[in-house]
Amino acid sequence: MLLTGQQATTLDSKGRLAIPARYRALLEEGCEGRLKVTVNHDRECLLIYPIQEYDQRAQLINKLSDFDPLERRLKLMFIGHAFDMDMDANARVLVPSTLRELVGIERDVVLVGQHHKLELWDAAAWTRKLDSLFSIGSAVGVSEKLRSLSL
Which CATH number fits domain 6-139: 3.40.50.720, 3.40.1550.20, 3.40.50.920, 3.30.300.130? Predict the structure, then answer.
């Protein structure tokens, strides 16, 4: 499933997100509208996965150690904060209030496609992130992995 691009939208008063048309058909066809939402590791945004994409990642993460603090942290964040979301007949999903509060999402949001998942950002936080995205390269340089990459 190739989820790309950005889409600004709003949550309704009940915290429901209408899935934009650009993603709707892919999600209906690829996972019958069955989604999983969880918090990103840095608490900047929420991650929305088609159910099978989430399940693949959760299986890998679940194999991590409960005794290693960093591995346990990732398990608690990725698996422990996950909620099911099913698209209704109007292609809406209810974004759990617990997760909205955790990352500061209110009404205005931006969906950002990341190939196999969508990131759900508070619109103001996304604007701040964009500012940093376009300035960070000169401040931190380029990693070894990126030096050989051609876009």
Answer: 3.40.1550.20
Task: Judge contact between 3 and 113, C-beta under 8 A.
Answer: yes
Range 67-86 average pLDDT: 96
125 close to 112: Cβ distance less than 8 angstroms:
no
CA distances from 8 to 11, 34, 67, 107, 129 (A): 10, 22, 41, 11, 14
**Interacting residues of 68 by C-beta distance below 8 A, sequence separation 6+:** none
**Does 134 score more than 90 pLDDT?**
no
Q: Where are the domains of the chain?
A: 6-139
C-alpha 20/C-alpha 10 separation (Å) is: 10
Rg of the chain over Cα atoms, rounded to whole angstroms, equals 16
* Percent of the chain's residues with pLDDT above 70: 94
3-state secondary structure (DSSP) of residue 5: coil
Predicted confidence (pLDDT) at residue 124 exceeds the cutoff of 80: yes
